[in-house]
Amino acid sequence: MKNYKKIEQINKLLEAKEKRFIYQQELIKKYKNTLISFMLNIPGEVKSSSKTREFQKYYVNEIKTILKQNNIEILYEDFRYKDTGDEYFAIVNGDAVVVKNLMINLEESKKECRLLDIDIFDKSINQISRQKLGFDSRKCLVCDEEAKFCMRKGTHTIEEIIEQANNLLEVNYEKKN
Questions:
Q1: Known Pfam families for this protein (predicted)?
Q2: To the nearest whole percent, how much of the chain has pLDDT over 90?
Q3: pTM for the full model?
């Protein structure tokens, strides 16, 4: 029964990813501009809660502030509440490489920003990667190794990763109150 539930959850996540990709393509084709696609890296079964939503909305406001400071206009935005993880989309009139560099700076600004998953696509629907711009891969939530390395090696238990993610969510919450 446990395996069935796990398979069902994986299928939901894959379906959500596919729908998100289709929506991203539609937005770029319609607006012919740079797309910001922002979710949180939340381990475990519960991807959306009042705590994650508050955290994500805080960082949506941070993104908007950064864009405004750099004279990048938001042409369209959409926030979608999903069990598989809330999604924020923004079409902006800035160069995709510039926007990606700004978002990488945000992702690396604080420890809790390891939870941020900000993807940038150019007007040709090409995703701008950290590696293309000469940045290191994302770090693990628990340690300072590359996240991909820890995932492949099974360095941490899911319970450790979930606990660390919850701790990072609390850090931000405490700062705001």
A1: CitX
A2: 72
A3: 0.91
